[in-house]
Design brief:
- It is built from 9 helices and 9 strands.
- It is 57% helix and 12% strand.
- It is elongated, with a radius of gyration of 37 Å.
- The strands form 3 sheets. A 5-stranded mixed beta sheet has the order 3-5-6-8-7, covered by helices on one side. A two-stranded antiparallel ribbon has the order 1-9. The protein has a two-stranded antiparallel sheet with strand order 2-4.
- The two termini are 68 Å apart.
- Helix 1 packs across helix 4, helix 4 packs antiparallel against helix 5 and helix 8 runs antiparallel to helix 9.
Length: 400
């Protein structure tokens, strides 16, 4: 019985011509295809002689790297193998009796089966390497974009805050230079401008803060923090901020643990204050807001419950999204401290970002939105209790 190696030795030139004619009609690439086919038939012959697939594996890997051009233009090289297998089988059946052809076909089929496996491995490895390269390029580009964003925020903060500081300074100078004999209306106008610039500074600071949180580059200065002090300060600040409103804030101070935790006191105060201010904003005059604490394993749950208009169940998943101010903007009042006053919708997202940077979280509960019956809302601020700074570096940015 003839061996496949002997058959290939005799007919490889004829089969190469047939295979090249089948695989490519482009004269410019026929020589490249012929070289690839010749190399494959040589490897096929060596496998038939020795049973060693390593040389053939090298040929297949080279195919994958070079991407041997074919008429079909397919990205996979399995059709090429199928074509070569068909050429060999047709040539065997054409030049050999059936009883002598069967062993040759069976031997070639076994080798082609293994070759398909090797080709699959080679293509998967090449695809994985290509994806790694693309991922590396994407990561490099992303780092570059993040750096550009960080630089832009730093420049924007300077460009926005510097002229605003000048305006505030000149307004203070004007206010101090106006004698009491001058029309009191001037003081009213200056106070109006001062209030506008203060509001503008708050908006600028909020936009910069949410950008820093989104980029994970906000810095935190960890030190011991007592939650009772933070909540008391938030209550005082919000009460002053909403001085024209008649909403009572009751703090159950004894329910707040006395043990300190490690956090950035200014940022933690900012988070609690924004949640409390949100509660006051959506609570009608004459109503009450309750603040209490619950000690849980590893956390303190600061619970802020209001008697306000509540939150529709469809909106609860979105209230912590950036720029997610709920309701018709055209119906909002112009002042942020007024009942349902308008705003850019950054307070709750900033609070969430700060708390998550500390390893905490925040969520809300409500029985629905009803301006008449005021079902109210409850916000849970989960503050982790750390007995040491969570990171080695005391001055660290937000890390996922």
């Amino acid at each position: 019985m003839p061996k496949l190696s002997e058959w290939i030795e005799i007919y490889h030139q004829e089969m190469t011509v047939i295979a090249v004619a089948t695989l490519s009609h482009d004269e410019a690439v026929k020589s490249q295809v012929a070289a690839a086919v010749e190399a494959f038939f040589s490897g096929l012959r060596d496998v038939s002689i020795s049973g060693d697939f390593i040389p053939l594996q090298g040929i297949l890997r080279n195919w994958v790297q070079l991407r041997v051009p074919t008429t079909g233009g397919t990205s996979s090289l399995f059709p090429l193998l199928a074509t070569l297998k068909q050429v060999i089988w047709e040539h065997i059946l054409q030049h050999t009796e059936v009883e002598r052809a069967v062993p040759l076909i069976l031997e070639s089929d076994a080798i082609f089966t293994k070759a398909n496996i090797l080709l699959s491995e080679a293509e998967n490895e090449a695809l994985l390497a290509e994806m790694r390269d693309k991922l590396h390029v994407a990561q490099t580009r992303l780092k570059h974009l993040d750096k550009n964003k960080s630089n832009f925020i730093a420049v924007a903060a300077h460009e926005l805050r510097t002229p605003l500081t000048l305006v505030e300074g000149y307004i203070d100078m004007m206010a101090g230079s106006i004698a009491a004999a001058i029309d009191p209306q001037h003081h009213i106008l200056i106070d109006g401008v001062k209030g506008g610039t203060k509001r503008l500074r708050e908006i600028i600071n909020d936009i910069i803060d949410i950008s820093l949180l989104d980029l994970n580059i906000m810095e935190f200065h960890y030190q011991p923090v007592w939650l009772r002090q933070v909540i008391s300060a938030a209550e005082r600040n919000v009460t002053k901020m909403f001085g024209s409103r008649h909403v009572t804030i009751n703090v159950n101070i004894t329910s707040i643990p006395t043990d300190p935790t490690y956090a950035d006191p200014d940022r933690l105060l900012q988070a609690v204050q924004k949640v409390l201010a949100n509660a006051v904003k959506y609570t009608p005059d004459g109503k009450t807001i309750e603040i209490m604490g619950r000690l849980l394993p590893g956390f303190v749950d600061i619970v802020i419950t209001d008697n306000g208009v509540g939150i529709d169940s469809s909106n609860i998943p979105h209230i912590f999204d950036t720029f997610s101010a709920i309701g018709d903007a055209s119906l909002h009042s112009s002042g942020k401290t007024k009942f349902k006053g308008g705003g850019p919708g950054l307070g709750l997202p900033i609070a969430k970002g700060i708390l998550e940077a500390f390893g905490g979280t925040i969520w809300a509960e409500s029985d629905g939105y009803d301006e008449l019956n005021c079902p109210g809302s409850t916000f849970h601020i989960m503050v982790p209790m750390h007995d040491s700074p969570p990171f080695d570096n005391e001055h660290t940015g937000y890390q996922n």
